[in-house]
Amino acid sequence: MRRRSAAVIYGVLLVLRVLLAAQPAYIHPDEFLQMPEIAAGDLLGLDVMRTWEFVTAQPIRSILPIYVFSGPPLLLLRLLRDYIGAPLSATNLFMATRGFTALLSLL
Fold first, then answer.
1. Which of 23, 46, 75, 97 could form a disulfide with 36 if both were Cys (CB 3.0 to 4.6 A apart)?
2. pTM of the entire predicted model
3. How far is CA 105 from the centre of its chain?
């Protein structure tokens, strides 16, 4: 009985995690807006506004975390766009990066 209760609690928390991953972020906009924007510009060839932290000859922020967390889902979107003509929309970009982060949180 105890094991079943733990499985139910885990299932409820897992559903909650997925639902919250689809919500817009207001606490840390850099994490969910600025990071994918930089990666989308580099990996998808989109016209984006790079913030001052990344445009100088000696940037103050590293691009590595951006590529680690935003790169794989954006590369998947690029493959889908190039091979089956899937559209790139702001919603697709947002959900792909947030979904990937939610999946990583399960590890």
1. 97
2. 0.76
3. 12
